[in-house]
Amino acid sequence: MISRARQLLAAALSGALLMLPAHTGIAAAQSAHATTAGKVQSIALARTAADVKRVADYWKPEKFKHTDSYSPATPGTAAAPRSTSAGAAAGPATRAAANTASKASTAKLSAGRLAAPALPAKGAQVGSTMGKVFFRFGDKEYWCSASAVAARNRSVVATAGHCAYDPRQAKAADYWIFVPNPGPNGEQPTGIYVASSISLHEDWIGRGDYDYDYAFVTVHRGFAWVNKNGQYTMQDVGRLQDNVGGLGLEINKKPGTYTVATFGYPAGAQPDGSRPYDGKTLRMCREGRTIWNAAPPLDLQKGVQLQACDFSAGTSGGPWVIDFDRTRKIGSLAGVNSLTWDRDGDKRYDAVSSPYFDTVAGTVYQRAAAQRTPAKIA
């Protein structure tokens, strides 16, 4: 456990965005891409029709009736050995500390939006770009928050790195699916999307470095289960972005210069044992300003913290949205929920943090956006 003055506890948090190809005509961007591309890895999950069918068969309709029994993933679920002690004391989260040990790229894009946000599809439900991901590590099911990301392949989901890859086991999650806007009883109103591959930074894969606790997952076309003569069959419902829309992506946005709203499906207990949330409803922390933060025991040198947020486990991977339009439910992604904090030691979470989305994050996204998937799965 951490000292009362600065107590850090891991939690689970989800996010969506819509992007178009970026870096056009910007020399610095091209240089940064060349520098960072070698640090990005894409790991194949379900690539063939047989793979997709295997995953789909695992998530038959009756499986969703028991999602309340699955564990909301936390960094402790999928962190490197030295990171699992999200129990080591973290020093004061100051901007100076983050700047001193910054791992920023040698060449960066200018801060700003890489693409305009996409409107949700006609008739889409409130917050339809956001949802839950379900997966397994070993023989145990987990879930996190996540959201659709607009991309040229129209098939990208953003979430936390620990919701897709476990550095302790050097292993990607299995049976990974995304369910946008899930119902409280496991309903899948806009389909189920099986992961084709995940794109991550090598320092999350190899070290569990929390500066890179994010993943962009390329998914197959969605499907819905249809009961025909007492047998469930898969029915193709199209590409993710066509069905739910997405958010724009913001990179190199300096903390303190913007306000952000965070989203997710909190479910875990507070440090005092109370459970104010049940994980069935999409929640939003109030919009607030961000600050730099750092936690050397977790290799977190350039984290971004949002205060006055009581999110708990279940919200990992949920989106940080800039310029959130409450009417159209769109905006731009600037981070994902990674860690939760009890800063004053009163046994209640009071802040969340995200890795800083810089040029490197944009490069990881681009890798996911470039992946191809079959034109039809069912």
TrEMBL record:
Domain Peptidase S1: 133-349
Feature: compositional bias, Low complexity: 71-94
Cited Gene3D superfamilies: Trypsin-like serine proteases
Signal peptide: 1-24
Record's keyword terms, sorted: Signal
The UniProt record lists the keyword Signal: yes
PANTHER family assigned to the protein according to its UniProt record, in alphabetical order: SERINE PROTEASE
Protein name: Peptidase S1 domain-containing protein
